[in-house]
Each structure stands twice: as structure tokens, then as C-alpha cells.
Amino acid sequence: MGKNFRDTLNERMKDPAFLAEWNAQEPERQIMRAIAEGREEKDMTQKQLAEITGITQADISRLESGTANPSLRTLKRLAAGMGMALKVEFVPIQP
Prior knowledge:
The chain has a single domain (5-81), classed as 434 Repressor (Amino-terminal Domain) (Orthogonal Bundle), CATH 1.10.260. The longest helix is centred in the middle third of the chain and has 16 residues, at 26-41. With 95 residues, the protein is mostly helical. The N and C termini lie far apart (37 Å). 8% of the residues are buried. The protein is globular, with a radius of gyration of 16 Å. It has 6 helices and no strands. Helix content is 63%, strand content 0%. Helix 3 packs across helix 5 (57-65) and helix 4 crosses helix 5 (57-65).
């Protein structure tokens, strides 16, 4: 039986270089999750969100999969389209 994603990820996390890169990409993963989860919370499809915001469904798909990097303006449009406000915060780095 092969390893699942979680097992493989846990194994890779033992590599300091991989862990450092994983941690560096956390903000991008948070954005991906926020878009997808916010849309799902509102029971919206990508197509519906695209129609409301004027952002193409293909672009929304790329944002949710992490293959595109949204501007602050795009994030504001997405939030508004979901009836939400965008909140950005700086937090202390945990040792």
C-alpha cells in the first residue's frame, strides 16, 4: 500500500529546507483557502463568483489552486463579491 499525501508531507517536513519553503508559502495557502472556503460558505460556484465580480472563472480557479498571485484589488473584489470584507493583518513571528 502506497503512502498518502499526509504521510509523504509529514516525511518531507523533516527536511529543514523543505520545511522552510513550506513555511514561507503559508500566506499563499491562506489566500487559496480563504477564497475557496469563503465561496463555499456562501454556496457559490466559481462561475457565480465570476459573474458577480467580473473576474473570469478560469482566474478564480487559478487563484484557488495557487497558480496565480492575486493583487490586493482582486482580493477586495472577491471579498465584496462574497459579501465579505478583506482583512489583512501583520502578526508577530512565532519562534
